[in-house]
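Structural prep section.
Before we set up the soaks we want a predicted structure of the protein with S-adenosylmethionine in place, mainly to decide which crystallisation condition to try first. Input record follows.
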Amino acid sequence: MIIVDPHPRDTAPGSADAELGDARTINYLRISVTDRCNLRCRYCMPEDQTFLDRDRLLSFEEIAQVASVLVERGVRKIRITGGEPLLRRDLALLVGMLKALPNPPEVALTTNAMLLDRHAAALRDAGLDRLNVSLDTLNAERFERLARRPGLPAVMRGLDAAERAGFAGTKLNTVVMGGFNDDELGDMLAFSNERGFEQRFIEFMPMTSNSYGLDATRVPLSEIRARIEQHGELAPRQRGTGPADTFTLSSTGQRVGIIAAISLPFCETCNRVRLTSEGVLRSCLFDGGEVSIREMVRSGDLRDGLIESLEWLRRVKPPVHDGVGHVQMNRVGG
Ligand code: SAM
Ligand code: SF4
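Run finished without errors. Recording the tokens verbatim:
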């Protein structure tokens, strides 16, 4: 077992860190199934990328084994992400395996939707509960500038296919970037309202490895709110256990979420762990502890080591992150 603990904490019984660790519940697992992507969003990865060799990736069977133990230990929701998860061939098979676990968790998918038109029906048939689609602009030229690839029409086809397949409650995730798309919040709200999506605005997260050639700035929470409030009042619905604060926009009655991991870290109530595509279990998107469990899975002797790792990660999860990630989003599964 390979353990990395960048900020060793005092987890002795009675210490503040130990109390926080004891109070935490881990019930949400995010699984990155690949680091590859068919886009190259400038806030996520550079143009030239070396991706993992395919034999480094956990197989669907291996992922399902890990998920099975974690579900048994209290995980109730699983999100499949990446890289672009729909690049993994027959992803619906993995969804089916997760939904076939005893006491099946909710299974959701985060995708750029470029390939969704081909896969939406199979994913729905396999039992996928929900979709989050990342879409930062409704302008095709901006899309291409950000993603370094054209793609807006494909995303729109993907959204249509998701609707036809019967997905409800789809969320549109928009990272707000000053000088890039911060003039489009009203258009995004109107689009989401018309299509019945829940619009979520996400504060741009500085990572040491991002903003490759994108001359954009972080728009803080207060400014994001002010921009939304140009289109109606925001009535609070809930401060979730997750990162999103959700509101009702008075002018339309639509639900709007804001995720502001930098202005308003949700670390204290964070309930998640992340499994990377090569089998590293992480406590945090930023620099928390991590444990490589790949060898455990591959040796066939997973259960006890995984339970021990989960317990350790629960305890070392940072009380608050340091605000800058030192990894690439596509590698840890944003
Ligand atoms: N490829 C899929 C997609 O784009 O939806 C899933 C993986 S992607 C890494 C997951 C999410 O991370 C996307 O919604 C993307 O916008 C977000 N993301 C990536 N880099 C980010 C950053 N620096 N700040 C905020 N969000 C970021
Ligand atoms: Fe790909 Fe998603 Fe990263 Fe964009 S944000 S490059 S779609 S993994």
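Observations: The pocket of iron/sulfur cluster (ligand 2) is lined by residues 37, 39-41, 44-45, 82-84, 112, 134, 329-330 (CB under 6 Å).
Flagged for discussion at group meeting.
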